[in-house]
Amino acid sequence: MGEETAGERLDSALAELAGISRAQARRWIDAGCVRGETRPARRVREGELLEVDPPELLPLAATAEALPLVVLYEDAELIAVDKAAGQVVHPAPGHPRGTLVNALLHHCGDLAGIGGVLRPGIVHRLDKGTSGVLVAAKHDAAHQHLARQFFEHSVERRYLCLVRGVPGADSGSVDKPVGRHPRDRKRMSVSTRRGKRALTHYRVIERFPESGLSLLEIRPETGRTHQIRVHLASVGLPLLGDDVYGGTRRGAGSAGFSRPALHAASLEIDHPRSGARQRFEAPPPEDFGAVVERAGAREGARRR
User: Fold this and answer.
1) What's the first-to-final CA gap in the chain, in angstroms?
2) How many CB atoms within 10 Å of residue 47?
3) What are the tens digits of pLDDT across the range 163-209?
């Protein structure tokens, strides 16, 4: 186990390492798949090794649906898609159908059991409101290879976002641990005693003082839940449209945008079979571009 997982619960550390849910990690432990381990709550130590024999692949529970799917790249190992804003990645309570997984099952045919019965092929997530590049594995070996890259932070991700605020510096970094909010378990926070290290770099692409907005490029080094949203809000730059972390205050530029203005613009990985570095890109959706265009028009009018 590495430094980042030292002190974590065994089930949490296993979930991160294997790219599975914590509930599934607990099932692996309970089933004896982790040699000599019977306590999911045991804290792991830096440098220790775990011997894991994953169980046989389970029958698929999610159903295939003929839904729109924008494919950026596809081969026998993986598929890269441009996820639409508003689409949930995998089935969950309240979202049994209409997810990206349902669309992938219809498009790819057989993803049975890869990464869990409700998350077949899924290696990483994007929030429901976030658009952009997402990669899924087509078989178990590819899933493990990709999951390890995300766990080791060797992937390179580039996001675009619109924030409320106009930073003075052209670039910066936020290095603050992210964990569950101490009072609201549905939110994440930098004010937590058990947060995991999180590092986010940002660069200003364009400022729109008239609208009170800025267009930023984001390069996260870690992948914590809501990391970008939490980090930017913590330095006074909440995402436009983010009603959870303060981006929907009344004011210029907020009308008509009801989701966090975040887009996964590109993703670089090592291919599971060839090892070659691959880069997948997706342009921002129309609503994102429309806000940038309107903000730019206002700046142009002010300068004239």
Assistant:
1) 59
2) 9
3) 999 999 999 999 999 988 877 767 889 987 778 899 999 999 999 99
Residue 113, pLDDT > 70, answer no
Give CATH for domain 157-264+292-303: 3.30.2350.10
Counting every residue written for the chain, the total comes to 304
Between 248 and 111, the more confident residue is: 111
CATH classification of 1-55 is 3.10.290.10, yes or no?
yes
Coil, helix or strand for 13? helix
Structure tokens at 78: 């993986």
pLDDT of res. 251:
44
Q: What is the mean pLDDT of residues 12-31?
A: 77
| DSSP state letters, 150-178 | HHTT-SEEEEEEEEES--SSSEEEEE--B
- Known catalytic residues are 127
Neighbouring-strand partners of residue 269: 278
Dist CA 303 CA 18 (whole Å): 53
Question: How many angstroms separate the most distant Cα atoms in the chain?
Answer: 72
* Domain residue ranges in the chain: 1-55, 71-152, 157-264+292-303
Cα(146)–Cα(158) distance, rounded to whole angstroms? 17
